[in-house]
Amino acid sequence: MTLWAGPGSSVHATAAKDFVRYADDSCPGKNGEYYVCAPWRLSLRGGKVIRLKEARVFIGPGKKIRAPFALSPHGSKAAYFRLKDGALVVRDITTGRVRVVPGIRWPVDLPLQISLSPGGRFVVLRGDYLQPRRVLDTVTGRTHPLPAGRTPWSFSPDNAHLLASDGDGRSVVYSTADWSVVRRARTPAGSLHTDGTTIAYIDRRGGHRIRFLNLVTGRPAGAPLKIPADESGHWLLWDRAGNLDLLTMVKSRSAGDHTTFRWRRASDGMRVLDTFTNRSSDEIDVITGLPDL
């Protein structure tokens, strides 16, 4: 089933919890290659496809280069520049509601990449000519620059904190209320819990495991969890209820032009939430939960 999202249409028929698996703006070309093509197509977990006709795909006429686009970590929101007026908008996939972000409008300095925080509250702006990286508040329109070399890694599920990595084994936690630094730690970058002090990260040394760390004490915050042997861990996400989800690549089902991804509820015995396959050679898709840092 395909739903259209554009002028005179809506996506209110989308199921309340039917989140996006990935966004596709590609078409097959010659010699097995893919190229950018319009419109954006959002593949949902329930099998539906939403075609975002109002979203900008190309940076300009005759230029087959993708315009900025992002999905929130769990796939409930999408951010893109609207064709009709150049506004940066955040669309709620579960309701179809669209919210205009103040403080930014197309055209923008290119190249530009964007990423979206949980619930779509913040947009991270990054690009070759945009240093340092900036965090844009989608409600107030205010932009908050981070020190050069510091990479936004994960927001807490309530957006109250941001964990950023310095790339040398050190992490910094910001309060998004005033952008003050509330915590510093020497630790691998990971997924930040709502409490703002606990992270979960994938440890690939001596086995594939999820480990938990308290940033205040520097000590483990729980027993490690083993990732299934046939799967490779890619990303971790907490939700507001304290559930921890894991995105993996299924090795035995990934070959040639296809990669199979799986979402698991790591905090509930590795229960499988969703499994889907994406083209390996098509590197222009945006996959929920697989950030481009």
Q: What does the secondary structure layout of this molecule look like, with pairings?
A:
Blueprint: E1 2-5, E2 20-28, E3 34-44, E4 49-52, E5 58-60, E6 63-66, E7 69-71, E8 77-81, E9 87-92, E10 98-105, E11 113-116, E12 122-127, E13 130-137, E14 143-145, E15 151-155, E16 161-165, E17 170-175, E18 180-186, E19 191-192, E20 198-203, E21 209-214, E22 225-226, E23 231-238, E24 244-250, E25 258-265, E26 271-279, E27 286-287
Parallel strand pairs: 1-4
Antiparallel strand pairs: 2-3, 2-27, 3-4, 5-6, 7-8, 8-9, 9-10, 11-12, 12-13, 13-14, 15-16, 16-17, 17-18, 19-20, 20-21, 21-22, 23-24, 24-25, 25-26
Give a short synopsis of this structure.
The protein has 293 residues and is an all-beta fold. It is built from no helices and 27 strands.
Major sheet summary line: 5 strands, mixed
Report, as a whole number of angstroms, the end-to-end distance.
Answer: 33 Å
Strand order of the largest sheet: 1-4-3-2-27
Question: What best-fitting shape do the alpha-carbon axes yield?
Answer: globular
- String of helices and strands: EEEEEEEEEEEEEEEEEEEEEEEEEEE
Mean pLDDT: 89
Radius of gyration: 19 Å
